[in-house]
DNA sequence: CGTTATGCTTACGTTCACGTCAAGCAATCT
DNA sequence: AGATTGCTTGACGTGAACGTAAGCATAACG
């Protein structure tokens, strides 16, 4: 059962990260596990944030960029300038991501072409070798 | 005029990188400028490779991953096992990139939703403030 | 009740991708 | 000739994102 609170080990197993990583993210204020005595217990909020963190990392964003993005996902924020800024940053990130997607599309096409050229080239080499062996 | 050979400074201006970066990439065997005495001169091949390097970096690939990919773009390679391996690696990268594109698409959607929620939320906060000021 | 596992803090180490001097050579301007 | 400019090779420094090891507390197991 997916309990509401998870230990650090459960988190590590669930998300395939190390304890060090989770403590590091807490130090950087990306997640906020509660304490039971000295131990950390991670909430569903932490899990949602961690999911977004790992996703962001795969797009090459820095932890600091991700942290700012996460603020946008905090629906308890009633500070107008802060929310305004979060939205602004969110728009920038969105632009980044759309640009990246477009570039990625181009790069995929290029790589596909290069691959089919490479396969053809390889076949040519193999044929040459076979002919030379007769 | 775009000469065939460019100095390090011309390269830096053209690609918005530092000399250190170009020397570093040469040391890592990502580019192979020729020498005029002691000075580096960059060919169109170096420029093509640099373009691919900078693109790869934007997708979060490491320089080592990029180096392997660049080998695939070397059409002078007549070594069958090497070409075979390059194609293999290229296929893996292609898969990575397609996965990343799909994930990116999802993330963009999520961020868009979060942004429109945020904008709505912000408007609510502003309205509340206006009402409280009466 | 001792051992094994899990967790904590503190702190130094590591990898990647460069940045930042220092010191020296070579061509060019004055 | 002397100074400036551009490029070179070391070599040490840096920030991000953790890894790793030491030393201690607590908790679960047999």
From TrEMBL, chains A, B:
UniProt xrefs under Pfam families: MerR_1
PROSITE patterns: HTH_MERR_2
Coiled coil: 87-114
Name assigned to this protein: MerR family transcriptional regulator
Keywords: Coiled coil, DNA-binding
SUPFAM superfamilies (UniProt xref): Putative DNA-binding domain
Keyword match Coiled coil: yes
InterPro entries in UniProt: DNA-bd_dom_put_sf, MerR-type_HTH_dom, MerR_fam
GO function term, MF aspect, one: DNA binding
Residue ranges of domain HTH merR-type in the record: 5-72
Organism, as annotated: Kangsaoukella pontilimi
């Amino acid at each position: 059962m997916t309990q509401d609170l998870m230990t650090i080990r459960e988190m590590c197993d669930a998300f395939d990260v190390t304890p060090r990583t989770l403590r590091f993210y807490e130090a950087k204020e990306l997640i906020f596990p509660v304490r039971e005595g000295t131990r950390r217990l991670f909430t569903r909020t932490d899990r949602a944030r961690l999911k977004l963190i790992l996703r962001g990392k795969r797009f090459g964003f820095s932890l600091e960029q991700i942290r700012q993005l996460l603020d946008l996902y905090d629906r308890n924020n009633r500070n107008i300038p802060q929310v305004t800024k979060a939205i602004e940053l969110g728009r920038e990130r969105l632009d980044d991501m759309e640009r990246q997607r477009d570039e990625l599309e181009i790069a995929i096409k290029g790589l596909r072409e290069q691959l089919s050229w490479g396969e053809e080239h390889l076949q040519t080499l193999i044929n040459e070798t076979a002919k030379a062996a007769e």
